User: Fold this.
Amino acid sequence: MSLLPAPEPTIPSHWYFDTDHYQRELKAVWYREWVCVGREEDLAGTGDYFTTQIGDQGIIVTRTDDGLRAYFNTCRHRGAQLCSAESGHFRNGRIICPYHTWTYSTSGELLATPYRLDTGSFDTSRYSLYDVHLETWRGFVFVNLAEEPEYTVVDQLGEEAACLRNWPLEEMRTVYRTTESVDSNWKIYWENYSECYHCPRIHPDLCKVMPVYKLGTFDSREIPEWTRDDDGDAETWTPDGKSLLPAIDGLTEEELGTVVTFASFTGMMYVAAHRDYVRTVRLMPRGPQKVDLIIDWLLPAKLGDVDKKILQPMIDFPTQVIAEDAQMCELNQKGLRSLRHKHGAIVEQEYEIRDFHVWLRDRL
Ligand code: FES
Ligand SMILES: [Fe+2]
Assistant:
């Protein structure tokens, strides 16, 4: 943690709504960094696929006999979108363009061009699907739209990933997924996630589970006189803080005693690891003033099917917290349009926002 001498300015207000600036960020951040697009388990069998949208770019991710592959969702003929469904299965390992039926293998080769008048000089090998770089990390699937990514997923995640080492992420299963659309710029949601200054006012129920949040900060160590008397006895994020599931094997005493361990993958995704479950939140920009949050709940696979009654409080509580945040993000978005508000001020406990702005400026 580092302390700020005095409030310093935020990035310019128009960066949160200007269309040209949004395009600049897509190119500098979203088309250059590794972006998590799902879980390996989302593609169980060979030929299964899902599609996703990163900024303006449609992507197909599929499982082949040789592992996972990703492509731009664009036909090499005249550029039609290949797949419109969110997910599905390529029958007989064929990706067929709906327009003029150019037919590709799931490994991306152009196999056939039905109905094309044969001129005898057509080299199909020049028209493979446009490849997208793909890496997996602990059960998560990441893609990178750059022609040559500058670093690996592991390098990008850096030290933040280390705090999750004892959670068996690769052996966990998604038991619930939801998408929440927020009418705010993606950076507003990320900044909201990066500070707890708003917690006392916005999250009264969460503050009961996490008393330190009543102070408007994430961590009692940020408050010199804080004595930890009021640390609460919550175990996890449920309405009463009680865990309804067995503790995950392999966690240390300290991890078992910590209500939540956050790993932040700047701007794009965070992981909230609890003693009994893991929640991931992925941000996907949908325009200068819209962001989708894709939220997954992961449990150890060996637990098998868990009763909905047990899952519900674990789902409802964070969903409520996110809804409270989303409402403020939308207000934040509206207010930023003021002609007078050229930029805001970052206060002491918003040091992570300042770091985020440094990160963003570096990329731009
Ligand atoms: S655009 Fe795909 S076959 Fe014509
Ligand atoms: Fe919040």
